[in-house]
Amino acid sequence: MKNDLGKIHIYTGNGKGKTTAAFGLALRALGAGYRVYVIQFMKGKNSSELKNLKSLPKITIKNFGSNILVSKKGQNKDKVFARQALNWANKIMVAGRCDVIVLDEIFLAVFFNLIPISEITKLIRNKPAGVELILTGRKANSEIIKLADYVTEMKEIKHPYQIGLAARKGIEY
Amino acid sequence: MKNDLGKIHIYTGNGKGKTTAAFGLALRALGAGYRVYVIQFMKGKNSSELKNLKSLPKITIKNFGSNILVSKKGQNKDKVFARQALNWANKIMVAGRCDVIVLDEIFLAVFFNLIPISEITKLIRNKPAGVELILTGRKANSEIIKLADYVTEMKEIKHPYQIGLAARKGIEY
Questions:
Q1: What is the DSSP string of A36-53?
Q2: Who among A28, A155, A171 is closest to B152 (CB)?
Q3: Contacts of residue B151 in chain A, CB cutoff 8 Å?
Q4: Taking phi first (over 0 means left), then psi (-120 to 50 degrees means alpha), and beta for anything else, what does residue A31 get?
Q5: CATH number given to B8-163
Q6: Is residue A62 within a helix (H) or strand (E), and if so which, with residue range?
Q7: Domains of chain A, residue spans
């Protein structure tokens, strides 16, 4: 298959569907025969989509973090996790172990001061030409937006959190 | 499993990720053990994500339409397809054959005058309480937005169509 990959995508904004869109894209890339690597920042292993995605060939999903919400202070343990995720992403990309790489919630990790934004620009600089890179998370930095090819803002128009609905397994996580 | 489903989601806007977010949500719901039914308006069978999704248990995907772009005139054949999709959606929901139903690009079908908006309000009125309904497509109507629980607008900030990149298999479709 001709590999015409190499673009950079960003899914950001305060609305639903950033991670789900990235996983949907992973599913689509798998369907076309590409190797997909997903690295999740600040997330444990309990989201429902992972179960089926992991059962497919040619996809690897690695979580770095716990399910405990990080405070804005950015505790040391969280910084260690985020740093590990970043190093792993660089390693996988440079070693040519994937065609499509998803760095889920990387912008949230920047927002919580777990990694400096300069590390993302460095990662983009090191990206091999034929690798498609997908970055997600609220509050994507304008500096990174400039470097991206596709940028979509998921804008929350309406959400039942506003009326106090609790997160539901299979829908919200 | 306790079924706490029943909400209505809309993914709309001119940005990427509406269908991929809906498929990502389908994947998540499957992972939690729910039965998922996807009905695609105005779409043929060539998108890459379908291959793997279809291989999973508890999901059915049905396409109504061709891959030929419908003109704003709304030809008769396209109206027949859209009407079939709508009837099928009503039938599946009312028969209790799914927990989560995705009506992909239904708003585009309304925009192209293939179905009247009143048919969507009717469908929502007929929806069994425990069925989670996901509607996608550009130009969601404000009337339907009022009836929904979750509404996310995918806003295009940047897209390489602007610089003339052709759609790529595994990424765009």
A1: EEEEEET--S--THHHHH
A2: A155
A3: 156-159
A4: alpha
A5: 3.40.50.300
A6: strand A59-64
A7: 8-163
Q: Environment class of residue B96 by beta-carbon count within 10 Å: exposed (0-12), middle (13-18) or buried (19+)?
A: exposed
Residues recorded for chain B: 173
**Cα(B151)–Cα(B29) distance, integer angstroms:** 18
Chain B residue nearest residue A1, CA to CA: B169
Supply B27's token pair.
């994947």
Count of positions (residues) in chain A? 173
**d(C-alpha B153, C-alpha A112), whole Å:** 25
pLDDT (tens digit per residue) in B67-120: 666 665 557 788 999 999 999 999 999 999 999 999 999 999 999 999 999 999
**Number of other residues whose CB lies within 10 A of the CB of residue B90:** 15
According to DSSP, the β-strands at A150-158 and A132-136 are unpaired
Find all residues with CB under 8 Å of A166, minimum gap 6, and list them: none
